[in-house]
Amino acid sequence: MAIISYGRQNITEEDIQAVCEVLRSDYLTQGPKVAEFEEAFSKYVNARFAVAVSNGTAALHLGAIALNVDERSNVITTPITFAASANGIRYCGGNIHFADIDSATFLIDLNKVEDLIKSRPDGFFHGIIPVDFAGQSVPVEDLNFLANRYHLWIMEDACHALGGYFLDTSKTVHRIGSSFFSDLTVFSFHPVKHIATGEGGMITTNNRKIYERLLSLRTHGVTRDPDKMKENHGGWYYEMQELGYNYRLTDLQSALGISQLKRIDQNINRRIEIADRYFRELSGIPELKVHPVKDGHAYHLYVILTPKRDDLYAYLREKGIYCQVHYIPVHTMPYYQLLGFRKGDFPNAEKYYEQCLSIPMYHSLTDADQSRVIESIKTFFQ
């Protein structure tokens, strides 16, 4: 019996050829393909600048540094996310504060964000990291108004949402990643995401100062630009001007990313088809909550809710259908409990966690395999 996973990569012959061409070239690490990938990506999401990095977590970390996070910083995020959304702030010594989710959307609740801000003195908070959970954009225009009112920066975690979009109040379409309402946006190219580079990430921004800082930070804080150096001893000379990191993406990975990005709209359309079929065929089950397709949703995940989650998870696994739970609330993790958070702090997130299950969702999922998932779920609830 073949295993059906909750997510997986799709590699084509064109992808393989693109990588082979790099293997035959003069560059394997950071070469011309990195810049080519950045240019193609920024054009796709309609952002001025894009910086490729080694993974999504590196993107969150460098973004935090570029936004001047330190031990005095207080930053708000959601408990329903992978821990990296919060960890990037902790790497810089900053303090994380959680705001509960909206039970209808699973996204951070902006009313609770504002309540949290008002509960502290003016100027206490410095920024917010909203998460486009499962592929759905946060109400980022509303968040932008809120952030401006309280002088907060926004680092949008869009690791689930490449290919998604939203409409502003004037009905203008904005690609997620355009950073039109955010200071910067971060993405991940893990194999279960919309495009895969093995590991990899991207940061988009429209702020040149942030962009140039990110370029420095990802490569050890080193520059070879004569206009920026304090001294110049010759053509070999370089200067480390700040404490940076080795968070570079390689030409091998970038070639794969360029090839995959060419199919992004096709991939998103297939995910929408899968999501629509799940809703149509599962929506009549009384003990199961499913959601119809939403405009702009990129469908990294398709999440269902049921009070029988644990039993359904085990049953499907016996049938060779490997689902996943996204996510264990970050504030319940032992590390964050050491920082003072407790179970019961965010009841909407905790209730969601008790019932959520991510069923198979990836653009190469076949109709036959989706039928197997659907029929197995129906059989369980009979």
Model description:
The chain is α/β, with parallel strands linked by helices and 382 residues long. The chain contains 13 helices and 13 strands. It has helices at residues 13-23, 32-45, 56-66, 84-91, 110-118, 140-150, 208-217, 251-261, 264-282, 309-318, 334-338, 347-355, 367-381, and strands at residues 49-53, 74-77, 95-98, 127-129, 153-157, 165-167, 173-175, 184-188, 201-205, 222-223, 239-240, 302-305, 356-359. A 7-stranded mixed β-sheet has the order 1-9-8-5-4-2-3, with helices on both faces. Strands 6-7 form a two-stranded antiparallel sheet.
Provide mean pLDDT, rounded. Answer: 97
Helical content stands at 25-40%
| DSSP strand count | 13
Under CATH at level 1, the class of the largest domain stands as: Alpha Beta
Task: Tell me the β content.
Answer: 5-15%
CATH fold node name of the largest domain: Aspartate Aminotransferase, domain 2
Helix count equals 13
Major sheet strand order: 1-9-8-5-4-2-3
Level-2 CATH architecture of the largest domain: 3-Layer(aba) Sandwich
Distance between the termini: 23 Å
Name the overall outline.
Answer: globular
Order of helices and strands: HHEHEHEHEHEEEEEHEEHHEHHHEH
Ranges where pLDDT stays below 50 over 5 or more residues in a row are none
